[in-house]
Design a protein that fits this description.
five-stranded antiparallel β-sheet, 14% helix, elongated, six-stranded antiparallel β-sheet, 40% strand, mainly beta
């Protein structure tokens, strides 16, 4: 399915992209012998860019399997062309490139044997694991690949300097400090170092 765009007036009173999409994927309709529908159990729309939802299949009002819906989102309330909101929807079975689904949504999904869905869930879990890593002041890290900075420095090992939530990185052989954007999304490992403890004499 391609992109569907609209003005905010066409959002049927919904104030946010998340609210509109929650409504789109929650419905019940009559079919021969009963009803069928979907119900959003949990959802997230991170920075109004990507919508993730755990959606349950309903048959005669009874919940069955739960699968993931992923939507690319266009959110531009100031657009003068009337395309203030848009989305492109996919299911996990389509193997979306977007793989930053929150843990709370992943945990609601029922088992699947679909190859693309399994791969997508694995990528999401790996990204969550990477973001859960901790960096402490003084840690030495080695990146999966070297980075070239604007001053010409090329390096893959750095000491971490942490001030509150702010991180900077110092090259082991110099005093220059660097910022590495989205470092928690990158492959890296802690380099073991020997810590020297002060000796206290009585």
């Amino acid at each position: 399915m391609g992109w569907l765009t609209m003005s905010r007036r066409s959002m049927r009173g919904h104030a946010t992209a998340k609210a509109y999409l929650d409504d789109q994927f929650t419905y019940s309709r009559p079919v021969e012998g009963g009803t069928e529908g979907l119900k959003v159990l949990a959802s997230s729309c991170q920075q109004n860019r990507t919508y993730y939802a755990a959606v349950q299949v309903l048959k005669n009002g009874v919940g069955t399997e739960v699968f993931a819906v992923v939507c690319k989102v266009l959110w531009n309330p100031r657009s003068k062309t009337g395309e203030q909101f848009g989305y492109k929807d996919m299911t996990e079975n389509m193997g979306p490139c977007e793989d930053n689904c929150p843990r709370a949504i992943l945990d609601l999904l029922t088992p699947t044997d679909h190859e693309h869905a399994l791969d997508w869930r694995k990528r999401c879990a790996e990204n969550l694991k990477r973001r859960a890593r901790k960096l402490e002041n003084g840690d030495r890290i080695k990146l999966g690949a070297a980075i070239t900075f604007t001053d010409g420095h090329v390096g893959d090992e750095f000491f971490v300097e942490k001030r509150g939530r702010r991180l900077s990185f110092r090259a082991p052989d110099g005093y220059s400090r660097y910022r590495i954007t989205r470092v928690m999304d990158m492959p890296w490992e802690i380099v073991p170092t020997t810590k020297v403890h002060k000796t206290i004499f009585a």
